[in-house]
Every structure is written in structure tokens, then in C-alpha cells.
Amino acid sequence: MTVTKESVLAAIHPVEDPEMEISLVELGLVYDVRLEEKDDSIHAEIDLTLTSPGCPMAPEIMASVHRAALTTEGLETVHINLVWSPRWEPKIHASEDALMDMGIF
């Protein structure tokens, strides 16, 4: 099976924001997944942001995304990049379903 950005996002999809109980993918907190081939193995670089720079759950959320991404068949290694630019804005980054769950219309 070929590793794709979509397959990595599907593996990450069950990981939820602990306060909102909404998927990080649906919230738009996973900004990018880049795949690299290194020595016949596939590596993923994942750009992730959080709802707030002061989020006390940052290490746990990053670890959960890392573990989930590694369940992607064919993916050997993962690195999580915590990024703050662009600043997360739910009306721009979140899916329609997530906006409805948050009460933003």
C-alpha cells in the first residue's frame, strides 16, 4: 500500500481535542502532512497547531497525533512540528461539521 497524505490524515482523524471532543483534523489543526522517502522507508512531517499557544495538553496532543500517524500502513517514522503560523482561526480552518459542533455558523 502506498502512503498518502490522505491515509495519514485518516489515521490521525480519531484524535480529538480534549476540551472540545472534536477531531483535530476536523478542527483544521493539522496544517500539513509532507511525505519523504528515506532509505526505502516513508517518513511523515506533520505540521500541527493548537487552539491556544498556552494549551496545557500540548505534549499529550502531539504524542497522540504521533502515535496515530504511525498506525498508517507503510509509514515508518513521523515528526510532529508544532507551528503557530498562520494563527488558527476556526472560521477559516475548521470543517463545516466542526463549526456546527462548536456553535459557529
Q: Describe it for me?
A:
The protein has helices at 5-12, 24-27, 58-69, 90-93, 96-102; strands at residues 30-38, 41-48, 75-82. The protein is an alpha+beta fold. A three-stranded mixed β-sheet has the order 1-2-3. The chain has five helices and three strands; from the N terminus they run H-H-E-E-H-E-H-H. The chain has one domain (5-89): 2-Layer Sandwich (GMP Synthetase, Chain A, domain 3). Strand 1 (30-38) and strand 2 (41-48) form a beta hairpin.
Question: Mind sketching the topology for me?
Answer:
Layout: H1 5-12, H2 24-27, E1 30-38, E2 41-48, H3 58-69, E3 75-82, H4 90-93, H5 96-102
Parallel strand pairs: 2-3
Antiparallel strand pairs: 1-2
Helix pairs in contact: 1-3
